[in-house]
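INTERNAL TRANSFER SHEET
From: sequence group
To: structure group
Subject: Katanin p60 ATPase-containing subunit A-like 2

Please process the attached sequence and return the structure record in the designated field. Keep the field labels unchanged so the import script can parse them.
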Amino acid sequence: MELSYQSIRTANQAREADEMRTESRRRNLLILIFHHLMEAGYMDAASALEQDTNVCFRRFEVCDNIDLDTVLMEYESYYFIKFQRYPKLTKKLPEPVESRHARSCGKKRVPCTGVQPLPRINSSHRPPSRGGVKKTKPKMVVKDAIKAVGENGGRSSPPEPTEFGLNVSPIIRNGAGEGQMKKGQLIDCRGLIQDASNSLSEPMEPLLKPLSAFIGMNSEMRDLAAVISRDIYLQNPAVRWDDIIGLQAAKRLVKEAVVYPIKYPQLFTGILSPWKGLLLYGPPGTGKTLLAKAVATECNTTFFNISASSIVSKWRGDSEKLVRVLFELARYHAPSTIFLDELESVMSQRGTGGGGEHEGSRRMKTELLVQMDGLARSDDLVFVLAASNLPWELDHAMLRRLEKRIMVGLPSGNARQAMVSHWLPPLSCTGGVELRTELAYEMIAQATEGYSGSDIRLVCKEAAMRP
Ligand code: ADP
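Return from structure group:
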């Protein structure tokens, strides 16, 4: 009786100690994450973590110079020694169809909301089961692992990535395994190079630097910066050069003016220093906005999309400050492209209109000119692209600063034909509907002389809607 009581007590104590260790590991992980966020300057995210978990992390300190970076590095070296290659820690999930569609339509990316808030830490908490996610691969249990080792002749093979993209390796005590690093053995870097080139070949979306590191600004400016990041900054315009039909000359000029200076900066110095301001002008609907977006996509620059409505009406009185913060932010996130759409409505000639111009609007225009001058004097990779349908209405001082002007004209006959066959191909499948089109493309191209790209798209849409 005495003995069994003793054994129950011991088992209980062991279980309690185990639970405490798990609890403390969980808490430590959160503290490390908090510390990492603070170090990287993601202050808002760190505060949100504190709020979500209801723990004041500021009361804790990370000891022994440890941080998430070090932990990850050590895990990588452990993995390298064990499997002679570096672990693949994350992988990109296939994009859902709707978001791909939204992006191809040029819609703004909505922030991912699928992330659940972190669970509050308390002793009764158990991690929620992933009810919604169907596991495709069952967890590898020790028995399977031992079997796998047996089949591999003692060599433990790298585990398959799980559906969450994390390589979770079962730890197998395999003292004599071939996979283990021998003393003095040279590390083969091929795996490392392979991994690095694999990750480079995958186009990555640029990480926007945390705003909290945007120093030298007071809180009002920071608020404006947050507004710009939310409303004006466009994460990925997703327009490729090939999406633009025709406009070969305009594409070549834009590439020369913006793309090459970013790719080969050593060539563009002195008199060859890149153009700071570019004006795309021509009739409406000819692809000026598409060209600007293609620059941002192909060069992977941070893209700020400004229109008259976003800077003039929304923050009346604040427009001047907004312009200043916008340029500061563009420098901070360089290389960046500031795209001013419908420039004539932001920068019409000053002093015209019988002196009825709003004081705030005049101040905003002056600020824009001053900021563009500042850009011209600096080496920052910030490009101002402007589009206008009415270039003769632009302020002369602004025109002077837009050094390079590119005419984006109406599409040629060949381009019109390519557009019609792009939007109404001989056999197309539109949203699950099969469209059988038998068109005299050449004849349509002739009949649509004087149409813009946008007009031709509308004609095609109208025709497709008819049946
Ligand atoms: P704007 O010159 O007024 O800025 P946009 O670039 O916004 O014109 O073009 C409006 C729409 O017209 C685009 O979304 C696109 O569907 C179509 N479009 C116009 N020109 C072209 C082109 N060259 N290639 C492909 N689509 C075009």
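Handover comment: Strands lie at 233-234, 277-281, 302-306, 336-340, 382-388, 404-407, 427-430, 433-436. The pocket of adenosine-5'-diphosphate is lined by residues 244-247, 284-290, 387, 453-454, 457 (CB under 6 Å).
Transfer complete.
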